[in-house]
Fold this sequence. Notes:
CATH class of the largest domain: Alpha Beta
Helix content: 40-55%
Strand order of the largest sheet: 15-16-17-14-13-19-20
Largest sheet: 7 strands, mixed
CATH superfamily of the largest domain: Aldehyde Dehydrogenase, Chain A, domain 1
Strand content: 15-25%
Radius of gyration: 23 Å
CATH architecture of the largest domain: 3-Layer(aba) Sandwich
Amino acid sequence: xxxxxxxxxxxxxxxxxxxxxxxxxxxxxxxxxxxxxxxxxxxxxxxxxxxxxxxxxxxxxxxxxxxxxxxxxxxxxxxxxxxxxxxxxxxxxxxxxxxxxxxxxxxxxxxxxxxxxxxxxxxxxxxxxxxxxxxxxxxxxxxxxxxxxxxxxxxxxxxxxxxxxxxxxxxxxxxxxxxxxxxxxxxxxxxxxxxxxxxxxxxxxxxxxxxxxxxxxxxxxxxxxxxxxxxxxxxxxxxxxxxxxxxxxxxxxxxxxxxxxxxxxxxxxxxxxxxxxxxxxxxxxxxxxxxxxxxxxxxxxxxxxxxxxxxxxxxxxxxxxxxxxxxxxxxxxxxxxxxxxxxxxxxxxxxxxxxxxxxxxxxxxxxxxxxxxxxxxxxxxxxxxxxxxxxxxxxxxxxxxxxxxxxxxxxxxxxxxxxxxxxxxxxxxxxxxxxxxxxxxxxxxxxxxxxxxxxxxxxxxxxxxxxxxxxxxxxxx
Length: 477
């Protein structure tokens, strides 16, 4: 079987490899992908540093053309790449193709942004002096991405980094190297100069640590666990580097008495269970007022009975497998914790057997939960959702905000008054009204508050805040 190698200084290198396993069919090996070393990482950083002076001064048309080519190829291969994504991560094929399309759109957007780079000119308060405010590229960017969006998240970090003239050392999650390799291969063939984009696949404890230890990385953008995010922050402070963190979430969805029941159930089911609940924006806390609580729980339970859990590549599948055995164990452990805490297991929670061996888990719904239970406070990252009963809107808002996280927050209501108040007072970076908490556009800022995020927002024109540094220049006329 072919080994898909790391890209360092424009060359494909590496002979050590690990197997990439399909979570929908554990008998299938998706591919063999390079297992990089600390030395590989150091070489990649050196290559990125050497390539930075020329790339940072490259023309905007060159950057535009390369990013546009990448976006066009991803779109042309959306079915192929979507199938690859579904096989390696377990996301259903329609979702995987949709994510691939989004990656293409992200490259298209930043291809346009490359032509819109601008600054400001203004007079000084002193006579005969002009002032220019411009943005310079930051330098070598370390990119560390998670397994749950293996093509979209790399795209929304790589595209702006290149657009604004930075060079890159990219480490994808160990579980999902295939999509990342494909993106890097596409960009490499699109004409990136040697060393501008370097891919080092491998263990976080090896490759990731070597990145954190390097004084030559000017900025690190990281999406992943809260614990690892804190390590990224600590090391970055030590090296006086810029860092951007997207971490956990325990996102609430409030359902008020006046909600449209059908809209509320659809939003809750999508938020909590689709993509196997493996989204940082997933809503795992459903905060429901007394008047609609019983009807909502009954309707959501009936909805869950119709949900098909099966092989991600199979037509008609609504939810694929959990990503791997370790995450499945975490989900099962939290289901037992919920039972012991006194929550009622209203639906699901069982391991499932399908035609192919995989990590299949029935969607799990707890009722009679409280906001103090571990299942209501800790991120599970699986299809495990708890319903918390509250008396009114005021208690619902207070409960929604009572969390160490603050990424996404939602409300189902037909009241303009409550919707408006919730948007203003929800302590989250993103607020959804009568929509799932998961699902965001590529051209607007993404990010949270409190323990969910740190640093400038990702995506859209706001990405410039992280990937550039502001320069103010004065000129005597």
